[in-house]
Amino acid sequence: LSMPIPDSYLSVCFAVTCVLLFNAFQADAPDSRRRICLLAAAAFVFLGTMTKGVVALVLPAAIVFLWLLWERRLKSLWKLDLFAAALLFLALIIPVTWLLEKHNPGFTRYFFVDEHLSRFTGNRQEQAHPEPPWFFLKVLPLLLAPWTLFLFRTVRTMAAKQVLKTDAVSRFLLVWTLVVIGFFSASTGKLMSYIMPALLPL
Description:
The chain is mainly α. Helices cover 71% and strands 0% of the residues. Helix 3 packs across helix 9.
């Protein structure tokens, strides 16, 4: 018996989205690059959402918001290009969701409410995989292998060289990691595959 595990596909869409958003909101990003990156990110958010759900939208948005807050450049968010990207996302997801609901009545509630909101809060009738908040910290060394061997040395080197004070990429990757692991640690149900989007930045 086999079953599809969409977390790997989500991880690809998630990673591409985050890279595009980072390039869009770099301090020296020209308008043309920001516009292209944001529109492309909207398309990958759509693909990620249809693959695994609204985490493909909520988490990258949280990552960019917190990173720009750290960079003290939160005003960079208020651009017409971001509004255009949001419109593109809606133009993609609304008709697809409507078609799915039309041919599979109850899809919208099952996919967006039961499989996401209810699972996260623990209000689903059949709540699976209950784990403590520190569950992912326990399995992370296994998921990162063999790079786990270098993790502690990397942290020590970054601290000694004060990398987070000088390197925007490292700050972005740290926020990316903490948002993903923190979000799913707060969820009632947990599986190791949930934090796959955090493995690449680590």
